[in-house]
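Researcher: I'd like a structural prediction for the single chain below. Treat it as a standalone chain; there are no partners to consider.
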Amino acid sequence: MGESVCVEEAPQVRLAPHPTARNAAVAVSYLPSGSVVASIPALATSLLPSEKGKRCDACHVLRSDEVQLRRCSGCASFWYCGTACQNAAWKAHHKKLCKSYNAFAASTEYQALTPHDQVDALLLSQMVAEPGPWRPVQNGGSGNLLDPYATFLELLKGPRADGFELPLCLPRGAGNPEILAVARELYMRFGNNNFVVHSHLNSYGHGVFPLASRLFNHSCVPNAVCKYVIRRSEPVLMQVVALRDIEEGEEITIPYLDPALPYQTRQEALRVNYGFECNCRLCAFMKAIHPVLPPPERGSAALHRMDAALRAFALGVGGGPMRIPTIPGLFERMPATLHPVLHESYLPTLSELFSKTSHEGPYVDAVEDGLTSLAWYVLVYPPNYPQIGMHALELAKTAWNLLCTDGPNLQPRESDILEAQTRRFLDIAAIVLENFGPEGDDGGPLNEIQLLRDALGS
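Model: Treating it as a single chain, here is the predicted structure.
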């Protein structure tokens, strides 16, 4: 039957044998689409440098009219939404980092790091500032999944073999052999286990969620995804959400990276960071048709026909009402004549074009470019993948802009068709993002959907 996880954070999951991975997390019972499979509080988090001063360094709540952030009076480089977060951070790690932080942040070692390595350097420093919780684990802890420290040290070490070590932000003399040994043990598990934390799919920090790392394997065609719940004065909470109905005994998988990345980019990233080759349905399909021929030149009649064929295949546009797939693997049924849309150059060029025309116009071109992008997303992503919903919302806003700017010059039938399209884009966005559920900062896409529906008189 497999090992039941038996923890409050993931009551719907048990561990079962897996032919190639360490284990598989499988559903204890039927889980309907939109179910929260697991709710896992962060063991540690750290903000990207660009987010410092914009969010509470502890709970990550965003500065607003209702939330005023106060600087730490010691280092003046950390901000908190109130005394609860400030006191919790002080006890956990900040009392060890406070006096050293500014010199550390100005050091050549720190400045030479990439922004993401800078986040990890601070994250690692926070985790080793108080080594007490790690001692019983290192001295024969049982790997109990109830203990996040034991669970973290049970995680597999990453494949990185270049000997790189992050600098640590610690008081002078605190970097003793015990601390350095703990830091090395922890950092060897960073690259293949830590998560990029996001609000409305915009990255703002890194987080350590040991139970999620221990439970869920990767797939480029996942049946679940992660979102992050931000509540004032509480640790950031990861929730794993079912994208579709999951049957009892079915493995629950999440994406470790964006499935829209080119096939070879995904494989290289998974090999370097995680030490495995992905053989999911999408990767198996891409391997079978590799190498993919490039698409026709942008602006050519041949590419225009290919774009139209993609929209017709994925969305039904042109011959009937727009619809989106409800089962994964649409790419497996695509005609070979459309394979060039999976070339690594196709989506980046199309996305850049949509971004430009949706902001600068002409909006009529933006709607067509955005519709082609939506077709690509539903072709590759599994149903209810949140990026589909976010793009459908952007497409609805673009169509609304077209209605507002060109509406008076349109024929009544043209205006009615465009308004119906806008409503359909909103419906798609709502289906996907309501399944994903509220997440991140207050407001966000669900509020935008309602505002646009109100503007349309829905």
